[in-house]
Amino acid sequence: MSQFQVPSIRQVTMQPLPERRYPLALLTRSGCRRRWPFPLHTFAAATALALALPSARAAAQQSGTLRGSVASSDKNPLPNARISVVGTALAATADSAGNFRISVLPLGSQSVEVKLLGYGSILLPVQIESGRDARLQVILTAIAIPLQTVNVTADTLVLPEMRRFAERRARGSGTFFTRDAIDHMEARAFTDILRRVPGMQIESFEGSFGPTYSVQTFRSQGTNGGRSCQVQFYVNGVPFNSVGDREINHFISPGEVAAVEVYTGASQIPPEFNSSMYNARCGVVLIWTRISTSPSRSN
Fold first, then answer.
1. Are 232 and 271 found together in one domain?
2. How many angstroms separate the CA atoms of 178 and 166, rounded?
3. Which residue, among 168, 183, 189, has the nearest Cα to 262 in the 3D structure?
4. Of 67, 123, 125, nearest to 97 (Cα)?
5. Which of 20, 85, 119, 283 is 20 to 30 A away from residue 65, measured at CA?
6. 175-186 b/e with 16+ CB inside 10 Å = b?
7. Residue, of 199 and 243, whose pLDDT is higher
């Protein structure tokens, strides 16, 4: 047996080779040596690719691909259906035509689950083989999904004028009627609401359009007694003046009213409605309608 002497190993600093061609010598089957002037980095890349190809080919031989489509019972495609392989993280979503594809599936028998909201889910077996695409045609049946009862609550829309109504009501000066109070009255005409106000007089007379009502307050005049005084109406903040003998009942019905404020004394009337121009000294009735969107807009 031949004896070999191993030289001592010492630290060697490797220097990068310059970018140039290095001859590659190969020994052919006939024993001849042949040379090819390849760049060294090209040879290294080719060697790495040659080593990687067998491993990639081996991985492909150990997995398969699943293709298929999802449709309803009436043959309509079902986009957005979710297809997942049970026991793995592999999944796909059906496209607009209901088609799907899942790659790199483990070989052998697999279970595939298909789900879509509004349809019954289904679990199907599929056999995955190397080198072949497994095919799966899925039909889902529409079902009624019971949902839990949802209770929706919301606060009543509070308009700016109704906020001011609440502020004036809190001060306690005047008579106030809310929508709930009006509902309990079962009033047939708007003036029926005003009959509940102390010191308010509702007088009826025959007009051109049928029975007409005059709304007045009673004002004292010292030792000589008193006299009636016609009140001033405001509808959504705008002064309301009757035309001829067509009074308030011809324009406002109880069902349209959201709230009413009544001020029978001059000292009670809010400053913004206490105007001598509109005869406010005899009393003011403020009407806020249910469909009002602005205090300066009458319905």
1. yes
2. 10
3. 168
4. 67
5. 119
6. bbbbbeebeeee
7. 199
User: Is 178 within a domain?
Assistant: yes
The domain containing residue 259 runs over which residues? 160-289
Q: Among 12-21, 126-135, 170-179, 272-281, name the one with the lowest average pLDDT.
A: 12-21
Cα–Cα nearest to 272, from 286, 252, 291: 286
d(CA 75, CA 140): 10
Q: Do 191 and 248 fall into the same domain?
A: yes
Return the CATH number at 258: 2.170.130.10
pTM confidence score = 0.44
Buried b (16+ CB within 10 A) or exposed e, 250-284: bbbebebbbbbbbbbeeebbbeebbeeebebbbbb
pLDDT (tens digit per residue) in 148-191: 888 887 655 566 778 889 899 998 889 999 999 999 988 888 98
Are 91 and 50 in contact, with CB atoms under 8 Å apart?
no
**133 and 67 in contact (C-beta within 8 Å)?**
yes
pLDDT at residue 298 above 50?
A: no
How many domains are there within the chain?
2
192 lies in the same domain as 273: yes
For residues 167 and 129, membership in a common domain is answered with no
Per-residue pLDDT, 296: 39
Tell whether 76 and 118 lie within a shared domain: yes
Paired strand residues for 201: 216
- What mean pLDDT comes out for the span 48-64? 59
